[in-house]
Design a protein that fits this description.
Layout lengths: L16 H11 L4 H8 L4 H15 L4 H8 L4 H20 L5 H18 L5 H10 L24 H10 L4 H13 L6 H12 L10 H12 L9 H4 L1 H17 L7 H13 L3 H11 L18 H19 L1
Helix pairs in contact: 1-2, 1-3, 3-5, 4-5, 5-6, 5-7, 6-7, 7-8, 7-9, 9-10, 13-14, 14-15, 15-16
């Protein structure tokens, strides 16, 4: 797939073939494949990842509600119901919809109910972290708790601790926390940098938490509006090169790439390419195969909303990296 006719595709399921089948079923208004998939999903990390993808697809329909009506005692259906309510509330907040507060309250109550129904599940608590972003003024006590270490800001640390108790270093939970910290920092992202350093400091080798610095680097670049600078010094700075290498040598070398987030793989390939570590970037492009994501490539263009421009950057980076390796 190194030829000029190679064209990547986007799919929320990535390499997860079973999830892809369930997503297709959802899009046609059916829930049975989703129910069967979740019934045989092992491990909280994969459970979190799959429910997040399914909720993003199901949020615009009543498929999950139909499932709950058919199987009112299904815990998985209740978890998905909560996921969908949270997804709708987050979207409403993003669009500044007048019903945002109502949807937020409904989703918050569902999180608490599902947490009681399924006490070992980290997802209701991950969902509460997602909803914390809606509290822009940090008016809720649970969103301004004292941090577990110096140099960290106040925030929903109790909620994060509940996730960690159930699934230590849960990928989505730490991303939600990073988003919360970044949202409260209009200027330099010093507190966010302290957070990712603290988070990755205790994460095991295979944890996707080690990629958080790469996301933070992209957020810095986005805020600086450093678009279309293919050789921008931002990406070859000592910290950026070190963070890319660290993510490669810890997460990429040790994790099960069949279950890896496509966003994580694309961020790592982007970071290694930007750091001029082309041969190593080629290894990550091999793992990506044809399942690309628009971000972070879109931020290296003159118009981040133009997917074709983002694909051009992705293909250019891929071709350069494969050529260096071959």
């Amino acid at each position: 797939m190194a030829g000029s006719d190679f064209r990547p595709v986007y799919h929320p399921a990535g390499h997860d073939n079973d999830l892809r089948v369930a997503v297709q079923d959802l899009r046609t208004g059916r829930w049975l494949a989703m129910a069967h998939l979740l019934d045989r999903t092992d491990g909280w990390g994969l459970w979190t990842q799959r429910t997040q993808v399914l909720a993003a697809v199901a949020a615009g329909s009543d498929v999950v509600q139909a499932w709950r009506s058919e199987e009112p005692r299904s815990v998985a259906a209740s978890v998905m119901h909560t996921r969908v309510l949270v997804e709708r509330a987050v979207r409403a907040h993003r669009a500044r919809h007048p019903r945002t507060r109502e949807l937020w309250q409904e989703a918050w109550a569902a999180c608490r109910d599902t947490a009681e129904m399924s006490p070992a599940d980290p997802v209701p608590w991950v969902c509460l972290l997602a909803l914390a972003l809606l509290d822009e003024h940090r008016s809720m006590d649970e969103h301004r708790q004292a941090p577990p270490a110096l140099m960290l800001p106040r925030g929903p640390w109790g909620i994060l601790a509940q996730v960690d108790k159930r699934d230590p270093h849960n990928r989505e939970a730490y991303h939600r926390m990073l988003q919360f910290v970044c949202a409260g920092t209009p200027g330099p992202l010093t507190e966010a940098a302290n957070f990712v350093h603290w988070a990755s400091g205790s994460a095991p080798a295979e944890s996707a938490v080690h990629l958080l610095p790469l996301y933070l680097s992209v957020e810095r670049y986005r805020r600086e509006r450093g678009q279309e600078k293919a050789l921008d010094l931002h990406w070859v700075a000592e910290d950026a090169v070190r963070d890319a290498g660290h993510a490669l040598d810890t997460w990429f070398r040790y994790s099960d790439l069949r279950r890896a987030s496509q966003l994580d793989l694309n961020h790592l390939a982007h970071a290694l390419w930007g750091a001029h570590r082309f041969g190593e970037a080629a290894q990550v492009f091999d793992a990506i195969d044809r399942y690309w994501t628009t971000l972070p490539w879109a931020y290296r263009t003159r118009d981040p909303a133009d997917q074709e421009l983002a694909m051009e950057v992705f293909l250019r980076a891929r071709a350069r990296s494969l050529a260096a390796r071959d």
